[in-house]
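Morning, I've got a small favour to ask if you have a moment. I owe you a coffee for this, so here goes:

…
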Amino acid sequence: MQHLLPQYYQMVEECIASIGVDPAITKGEKDGQYNLQKGSAPVWVDVFYDAHNQCNYIQIMSPVVEVPASNTVAFYEDILKTNHNLFGVGFTQFNNWIYLKTIRECDNLQKEEVMAMLNRVGNYADQYDDELKTKYHANSFRKSDI
């Protein structure tokens, strides 16, 4: 399975190129990692092999906002209700950050699906990072937060 990863990297790079961005400048530290920007939202792509499940995956995610220091009950309720209206992505929390994320196995992956995943995460993240930051006085992501 792991030997198939380069074909998925190529697929992602073709999608990145099709939106007018040079894939070479988006490459992350490891093979299969790409860092893009959609408006104010960073969008991270990771194509990887999971040894535990013996499967290749593609994950696309974006840090949206830091969990606010106050009004957290309303914040989480808002996130949960918003999740119901999203297509193909969902809000998730890791550490003290809220992300938009989609993940799937690479089996039978098509370029059209990669494009849809990129567009969904990018568009939703670009919309909700500003909305949630303003509404809850939350911090948005900075590269130094990595």
User: Anything to note?
Assistant: The first strand starts at residue 33 and ends at 38. Helices lie at 5-18, 23-26, 72-85, 111-136.
